[in-house]
Amino acid sequence: MPPAASDAAFAVAFTHRLRFTRDVLDPANPVLSEVLAPAEGSPGKLLVFADEAVLQNWPTIAPRLEKHLAANLPWMTLAGEVTSVPGGEQAKNDWSVFEQVARMICESSICRHSFVMAIGGGAVLDAVGFAAATAHRGVRTLRLPTTTLAQGDGGIGVKNAINAFGHKNFFGTFAVPWAVINDEQFLSTLSDRDWRSGISEAVKVALLKDSAFFDYIEQIAGQLARRDETALRPIVRRSAELHFQHIANGGDPFELGSHRPLDFGHWSAHKLEALTSNRVRHGEAVAIGIALDSLYAARIGLLPEQDAIRAVNTLRIIGFDLYDDALTDTSLFEGLEEFREHLGGRLTITLPDGIGRQVDVHEVERDEMLAAIDWLKSLVESRRSRTA
Amino acid sequence: MPPAASDAAFAVAFTHRLRFTRDVLDPANPVLSEVLAPAEGSPGKLLVFADEAVLQNWPTIAPRLEKHLAANLPWMTLAGEVTSVPGGEQAKNDWSVFEQVARMICESSICRHSFVMAIGGGAVLDAVGFAAATAHRGVRTLRLPTTTLAQGDGGIGVKNAINAFGHKNFFGTFAVPWAVINDEQFLSTLSDRDWRSGISEAVKVALLKDSAFFDYIEQIAGQLARRDETALRPIVRRSAELHFQHIANGGDPFELGSHRPLDFGHWSAHKLEALTSNRVRHGEAVAIGIALDSLYAARIGLLPEQDAIRAVNTLRIIGFDLYDDALTDTSLFEGLEEFREHLGGRLTITLPDGIGRQVDVHEVERDEMLAAIDWLKSLVESRRSRTA
Fold first, then answer.
1. pLDDT, tens digit, for every residue of A207-253?
2. Do A134 and B138 touch (CB under 8 A)?
3. Cβ contacts (< 8 Å) between B102 and chain A: which residues?
4. pLDDT tens digit string along A175-202?
5. What ipTM score was computed for the predicted complex, to two decimals?
6. What is the rounded radius of gyration, in angstroms, for the C-alpha atoms of chain A?
7. How close is the nearest chain B Cα to the Cα of A377, in Å?
8. N or C: lower Cβ tally within 10 Å for chain B?
């Protein structure tokens, strides 16, 4: 009789592709053809969903995509129209976008080797991506992130999600997209808030992993505050690259362990978003979360005080409002347990112990965190009064 | 500026555990402690869902599990009661079981490192597994399959699913369970149909991969027909082992390619289940599908005729009814396209070209398949008239 116990260790191989370009739909732009080339011989269907705000700003996406395919990818056919989906957090606050995408995958006979393309901010990529990742147990996905946040962080990752039961990202999967294409042209039509808000994730990854990158952001913070597009582009690109490298080389792309450095500052950020019903947007909340945890790291003697102040000042100069009254909500600290529960295992918070360096801690001293909140408030208020 | 294009190849490592035992809840049975040992130090919560039919036959599961944990796994706590869920295909025909499981994961504060245990047939494992695989992007799962089919095939795999839009398994993910524990005791209370139906998957994998195993099944087919439990056990175990090895060593556990040998006979089986509104159960439909595709393989000169007849006779002697009028439904052949669409890419059907050997074909000759259906009908009818 065969053995009573079998353990098998096996690995699943993935390829993750990241591209930076301008005007991907230009008939002369080779990026789309190049990333799709390995799939030639596949059924060659492409089903496209786009953020309604993006379609308003870029109304020629559908005809240009059709022309681009005809000129460059004759083996690929568009399945139906480009479908508009609501953008922002509402895209993932219920099952409606998920349901719409899944139904169209079914009705358009999209198979596992066909493609779903999602064009939009992080929430649209999340909701469309979750449907594409679970229909037929996973259809190939092309992501075209359109916001600073999605191009520099969320769109690069291998996660998708919708919110449920009052919990952000309660449902989702880890799924490696076929390719992520960052088209810098989309950044030009963002609102000032959306243009700015993703820069916090660049500051985050710089603080943890790359001191030279932090120095650079600090140096050009004023240009970013003035919405200088040429200043933004290398920031987004380096941020995306660092997030991409973390997934490819960090050793735990599907987060089976508890070490989660890229969630620095996120325990309070997620809670702030919920406490303010998304009045504070993700990138803005992350700016606050980074500032707070940097000051906390200084208070517990982990990070030199001047480094914490540099982090706070850089974010402030870029234009982030780093204090919100929701920080004093007594339920803020529930965010720690929600963070632990969502990620699993032991509470693990990553903090910088120098600029460009990081360490994991497994508990948070509540009094010191409360003191860090007060400190953050006083830093913001003294600046406000000086400006006034 | 960082490069404009980055490709990263990376691998995600998984461990798959398979155990065979009898009475896993016996306080002296070490299997559960042993498979959970690597997780000690985790939050140690266990949330349990069981097939209502299984709970009726084994009403002491909940108190015995509690005692087992107290005696053997003091670091593990049961989250609430053992929850009963409907069994059979209805468990996965809508979102209700999924929703119930997900809500309880949320309310019981089950994190990614906690455990969901699913006890039941394949449909229960599928629906509970899909919820557990998407809540928090994947909670650890223990599978205790209770049917011949689930112990020998479905429960061993790394797939989960629910049905939607009239398509079997439309939604699902690939997710490696923490462990699969086959407790042979559960087989004793199965109905004769459920006891028998999973044997078809053993015949399937034997025909494709292991001629000695096929010879053995052929030899003891009469004992299986008489519901001889000692004859069944090694069959289930070898079938499970071959399916397990295919996942671990087959090179494509998440089915990113198109080669899908373990779906031999399944294109018509899935369609028969749908056409008969599940009157023909999965294992029974697979028996018909294997018989049909074996005769087809003989007709196109791939498989020696006497080998096809051996396959048909072995299934018949075990007790399978190998012909159903739904085979003449004109929509049967839509099953081929649905099969292709679900799996993705080019149509790829695996057929035996000898007992214990296999080859992929990429088209099906409709006339020959129709002739194979007639042939199967005549074989079954001649036997019926002889028996009458």
1. 999 999 999 999 999 999 999 999 999 999 999 999 999 999 988 99
2. no
3. 164-165, 170-171
4. 999 999 999 999 999 999 999 999 999 9
5. 0.94
6. 21
7. 33
8. C
